[in-house]
TrEMBL record:
Belongs to the lyase 1 family. Argininosuccinate lyase subfamily. Its EC number is 4.3.2.1. One of its GO terms (cellular component) is cytosol. It comes from the Bacteria. Pathway: Amino-acid biosynthesis; L-arginine biosynthesis; L-arginine from L-ornithine and carbamoyl phosphate: step 3/3. Its main location: cytoplasm. The gene is argH. Keywords: Amino-acid biosynthesis, Arginine biosynthesis, Cytoplasm, Lyase. It is found in: Cytoplasm. It comes from Dethiosulfatibacter aminovorans DSM 17477. This is Argininosuccinate lyase. GO terms for molecular function: argininosuccinate lyase activity. Gene3D superfamilies: Fumarase/aspartase (C-terminal domain), Fumarase/aspartase (Central domain), Fumarase/aspartase (N-terminal domain).
Amino acid sequence: MEELNASIDLDRRYYDVDIKGSIAHVTMLGEQGIVTEEEAAAIREGLEKIRKMIENDEIEFSTRLEDIHMTVETYLIKEIGDVGKKLHTGRSRNDQVALDTRLFMKKELGEIYEEIRTLLNVILKKAEEYKSEIMIGFTHLQHAQPVTIGFHLMAYFQMFKRDLERIEDCLKRIDYNPLGAGALAGTTVNINRHRTTELLGFSNITENAMDSVSDKDFVLEFLSDAAICIMHLSRFSEEFIIWNSQEFGYIDIDDAYCTGSSIMPQKKNPDIAELIRGKTGRVYGNLMTMLTVMKGTPLAYNKDFQEDKAALFDSLDTLRICVKVFAKMLENTEFKTEEISKHLGKGFLAATDIAEHMVKQNVPFREAHEIVGNMVKYCENNNMGLEDIKEENYPEISEKLTANMIPELSARACVDRRVSYGGTAVSDVERQIEAGKKYMA
Ligand code: ARG
């Protein structure tokens, strides 16, 4: 029973916020005359002492005391005697754990927020470095149109910027004080919830006691945000793995972020990227875990809720380290631009440009699409590139094809022409980078 019932192995991480919450609570109790000022001071002092004892490893966490709330209170009473028994006046472990979760998440999400910011800054730096270097842009992992490396990187900037904003938004809904909700219905004791809201630095107060002890949507919201963010990281990681392969050879990841093989001496494996891609599974799993834990629970508190810790802590820890290490790896990766440019000749990358050039000469787009399709087929049959087609062979391809229909075909020219807002032209990539910098500032 004890082993199943206890949450101390996980929620011991709440010790600091639990003590902060208790200090605010007892301060308010003193101000309200519910305990004397002397008693409040003694309890505060006792709590500070417990904090030190925990930090000095002088407290034994045991399943016998079930969770962090019981552990702190029990040790408090042991340290300061009977006066400690007054701490729990006008509250319940139900509002206490709701408070701890919110305080803890506020701090943790603040730190993850900073890690995502660091990643965004690294992306900006790299995008700037490679803003005009050209690589192949893919759809269906097939050669599509040339883009700049900076442009490709700035696509990720947008994704992680939204992830950052999701965390910011989640923090808004975390920032509500549930303390004083009691077990579920409020309390008969003359507490002042607005005062603890102020003491604990919350911007808002929860409106309904029953909701305050039942609500896990802020946890679910973070678990969703984490799942989306690590999905983005996983896609970026997958590209790293592809780019790092011998077939592509696009990037050189610093040795510090790769591992070797115990048997094959030539190996330089992109383990970080693979691990992040793999860890995406557990972060998705944590979201499903909590959605499932919550789905059938009647109001108000149920012990099922205790299960939130494993899922929450795991997603917090996993997301944080993945964002942090990925940013470092990206910062220490070079794009092998010479190698990358060798691939540019291969995939008929200028095909769309020819069709759009024809459009400018009043050829309807569908017709242009067909003519260029024939050009590609002709090149494939004759093992040549689009730029190798001779004018004398045009009639074989289409009777409508004339020399003025073919624009300059280099990848550089293709990139330079894409000046539409948000396009890959260097001028627009520069604009995107500037906007990104302004956002970060
Ligand atoms: N350890 C519990 C949890 O995490 C604290 C709340 C316990 N409340 C109760 N009524 N048993 O949910």
